[in-house]
Design brief:
Layout (H helix, E strand, L loop, with lengths): L17 E2 L12 E2 L19 E9 L5 E2 L1 E6 L5 E8 L1 E6 L2 E8 L6 E7 L4 E8 L2 H4 L10 E8 L9 E7 L4 E8 L1 E6 L2 E9 L2 E9 L4 E7 L21 H5 L13 E9 L8 E7 L4 E8 L1 E6 L2 E9 L2 E9 L5 E7 L8 E2 L8 H17 L1
Parallel strand pairs: 3-10, 11-17, 18-24
Antiparallel strand pairs: 1-6, 2-4, 3-7, 5-6, 5-8, 8-9, 11-14, 12-13, 12-15, 15-16, 18-21, 19-20, 19-22, 22-23, 24-25
Length: about 375
């Protein structure tokens, strides 16, 4: 890029009004007008005092190289404003020797900041080219659209619908979704690879799936796939019992484990056929603070500190509430038995010994078979 030369006759150079200012005003706007060609030889400079220097600033529009009116500000390195040129395409400043910062501002253009060093007796020319804001702003791509994952727990033809639990983790092992007490579920996911674990009657199967942008994928788990698999229950180490490594090295200091938290498991079943019943749960503290809410589920699980909570249950516009004490250690399981004529006051069974949802469903199925055999 070749820098244009200053105007030929000294009388054709517009000398902006130089004022002392305390702050930088907002630019007034700008209109680009064609600039006349600059001559090859500079105009005869006026005499410069030996103790000062002069700075001539010319403003041009990027691309067209047209003269551009702007506000020009002169500052010392410490930020103190020294002088300004108001809404001009060229302006001259007489300054003491030293370092200065030149700032050009105008509407619709990117600000230009330049540092200079002025020597006594010097006439210095600065040509500032200002680009449009649109040219400086990069185009940011829109975030990729999410994909849809449809999960199905498929029962054999003619068999009762099986319900289980689905847990989805990303490629780093972080859990991103969990649904329980359902035979199918739909989850929105960002593009990527995921591991989906299906749990049915305490038996687990994991499959991997890749979701592309805006893609809908279906992942089926056949109930027959779980047959023959051994049940898997998480092993719990008794509280206060040291591990084998701690027993081998008794001299090694053992950090005290944090106090155990509590786990609340909520189950809703139909009082007529004892089948899981999708409802809405909300768990709040005694002072009314909402801890967690669940919609359209027959099973819900929440980790929280041991305390008393209020559990609200909603089913088709009917409501009920139970006060439950969550204890540390093993999960606190609470089952709501709901009948159509008794929903205003659903029957809540007292907290039960820890049992998984799959075990409860198995018990319900056995009860149903016994009733049919009668």
């Amino acid at each position: 890029f070749e820098l244009p030369n200053p105007p030929a006759p000294a009388s054709s150079v517009q000398t902006g009004q130089v004022d002392r200012v305390d702050s930088t005003p907002t630019p007034d706007g700008a209109d680009a007008t064609p600039a006349p060609p600059l001559p090859d030889t500079p105009p005869p400079a006026a005499a410069v005092d030996a103790d000062t220097g002069r700075v001539q600033v010319f403003v041009r529009a990027g691309g067209s190289n047209a003269a551009l009116k702007a506000n020009i500000y002169i500052q010392q390195p410490n930020g103190v404003h020294v002088a300004k040129g108001s809404y001009a395409d060229n302006v001259e400043f007489t300054l003491q020797p030293g370092r200065y910062r030149i700032t050009a501002k105008t509407k619709g253009k990117q600000d230009v900041v330049r540092d200079i060093n002025l020597v006594a007796g010097q006439v210095q020319q600065q040509i500032i080219v200002m680009e449009s804001l649109a040219a400086q702003t990069p185009n940011r791509p829109a975030p990729p659209p999410e994909g849809t994952l449809n999960l199905v727990l498929r029962s054999p033809p003619g068999a009762a619908e099986g319900r289980g639990r689905f847990v989805v983790t990303d490629s780093e092992g972080q859990r991103v979704a969990r649904v329980g007490g359902v035979a199918n579920a739909q989850i929105k996911l960002e593009p990527g690879s995921y591991d989906v674990m299906a749990v049915y009657r305490q038996r687990r199967i994991t499959k991997r799936v890749t979701i592309a942008q805006g893609q809908a994928r279906s992942l089926d788990f056949q109930v027959s796939e779980f047959e023959g698999l051994p049940p898997q229950t998480p092993a719990r180490q008794p509280a206060g019992q040291p591990s084998q490594q701690q027993a081998v090295q008794p001299a090694q200091p053992v950090p005290q484990p944090p106090p155990p938290g509590g786990v609340l498991q909520l189950i809703a079943v139909n009082g007529v056929d004892q089948q899981p019943l999708p409802v809405s749960f909300s768990v709040v503290t005694l002072n009314g603070q909402l801890l967690r809410s669940f919609d359209g589920v027959a099973f819900a699980e929440l980790s929280l500190a041991p305390q008393e909570v209020l559990v609200n249950i909603d089913y088709r516009g009917m409501h009920g509430q139970e006060r439950i004490r969550v204890t540390p250690g093993d999960p606190t399981v609470f089952t709501f038995t709901i009948t159509p004529n008794n929903m205003a006051n659903p029957v809540g069974q007292q907290p039960q010994p820890p049992q998984s949802l799959e075990g409860l469903l198995m018990d319900r199925l056995q009860q149903e078979l016994q009733r049919q055999m009668r």
